Amino acid sequence: MIPAPRAPMGWRRRIASAFTEHLSLKAAAVFLAVATWFVVAAREPMEDVASVRFIPEMDSSLVLRDPTTPIRAQVLGRPNELLKLTQTPLIIRRQITSEAPDTLSLSLRTSDVEIPEGVEVIVRDVFPHQLTLHFETTASRRVPVRSAVLVRVPVGMTQVPVRIEPESVTVRGPRRVISRLRFVQTRRDSISLDTLPHLVELDTAGIGAAVRPTQVTISFVRPPR
């Protein structure tokens, strides 16, 4: 039986040389291709999800009962612009007045999202689309004290200023009541002008809130002779 002729070796040498010859040039070409890809990818816009900071601008009588739900936004931008959002996040601000109910639902839109200055991204969506806030049903705050005391002065002398200590007190009660309360007044009384301090009760009737302390000290500021 006649043996089959051997295949020529030329094609093997050509394949070997394709992988072994001019290695430095081939490596440079691969590096250049990879670098070009990274440059193009860095300039190509891409989508990502970024955190949004919620800043409620609330009346001083409002207190949030629970932390707010985390807010996210779907944004489009170049990778270097998206990276900036890790340092200067997106923001949603909302003005909330004292008339807000104890449970308040807010609709969130892409137009509500503030993009930081110097960041070029497009907000495609925001979620959740609705945010629910729960406020404390009671509130406390400091309010000033006003004097209703009539100072009896000698004939020919004008009324003298009154010094009140402390100048403000803490009121606590239903949130809507506290939000409308602008000051607490002393009880109406008349005191003769002298150099002694006087302890005066606060008029808490009809306020609808607890007041602490319930008394203040009144003294008179005599004009210089």
Task: Describe this entry's structure for a reader.
This protein is of the alpha+beta class and 225 residues long. The protein folds into two domains: 91 residues, RNA Polymerase Alpha Subunit, Chain A, domain 2; 83 residues, YbbR-like domain (RNA Polymerase Alpha Subunit, Chain A, domain 2, Beta Complex). Helix content is 20%, strand content 39%. The longest helix has 21 residues.
In DSSP terms (H or I, runs of 4 or more residues), the helix count works out at 4
How many beta strands in the DSSP annotation?
Answer: 16
Q: What characterizes the major β-sheet?
A: 5 strands, mixed
The largest sheet has its strands arranged as: 5-3-1-2-6
Mean pLDDT: 83
Strand content: 35-45%
Element layout with pairings:
Layout: H1 10-20, H2 23-43, E1 46-58, E2 71-77, H3 79-84, E3 90-96, E4 103-107, E5 113-114, E6 122-127, E7 130-134, E8 138-146, E9 149-152, E10 162-165, E11 168-174, H4 175-180, E12 184-185, E13 189-192, E14 198-201, E15 210-212, E16 215-220
Parallel strand pairs: 1-3, 8-12, 9-13
Antiparallel strand pairs: 1-2, 2-6, 3-5, 4-7, 8-11, 10-16, 11-15, 14-16
Give a concise summary.
With 225 residues, the protein is of the alpha+beta class. The chain has 4 helices and 16 strands.
Any descriptors?
225 residues; alpha+beta; RNA Polymerase Alpha Subunit, Chain A, domain 2; 2 domains; four-stranded mixed β-sheet; elongated
